[in-house]
Amino acid sequence: GAVVSQHPSRVICKSGTSVKIECRSLDFQATTMFWYRQFPKQSLMLMATSNEGSKATYEQGVEKDKFLINHASLTLSTLTVTSAHPEDSSFYICSAVKGISNTEAFFGQGTRLTVV
Amino acid sequence: ELKVEQNPLFLSMQEGKNYTIYCNYSTTSDRLYWYRQDPGKSLESLFVLLSNGAVKQEGRLMASLDTKARLSTLHITAAVHDLSATYFCAVGNDYKLSFGAGTTVTVRA
Fold it and tell me: HSE of A55 in the Cβ direction (CA atoms, 13 Å)?
């Protein structure tokens, strides 16, 4: 398998502040990473596709200015929740694709964000 | 838009008995995944199914795929308590995944 590490695993922040979540592929290079959001007892919703060296592609309804994604290297993508509101509280999960011929996307352990 | 329907959403299993979770999807996809999620945790990959008729088994779990019917099943044999979790199927192209709503499984003695 492959390891995808997400940091932090839990974060509590005040309304109006920004929070950065990191997603790292530890033992492989990932040209593409994905960010998902999961509300309690619900499924995962794709937020955006993060491509190394280019702008992220956001799904319909996801505010790109609120959820800033940067994929500066082949092993790191970051999601910054700007001007956080309590409604942004959620479980955020990233996944990374190992290679063109690989059939799997590997998931990070998730970040529980609570905005107070 | 790719839609994925999973049922049942909740499944109370009795230890030792067999059960099936169903996953229907709306449009052609090149792969189907099954994942397990424990409370507060991320996703654990169970199976990747790539072709029509594909069947994979791991322990008490067996997954199959019928691309013509756009249906995948996750069969649980002789349920045990350890299998209590939420199970998701996901379908996608180019690794962009659309997830089913999830099936929360509780195994009771």
Answer: 6
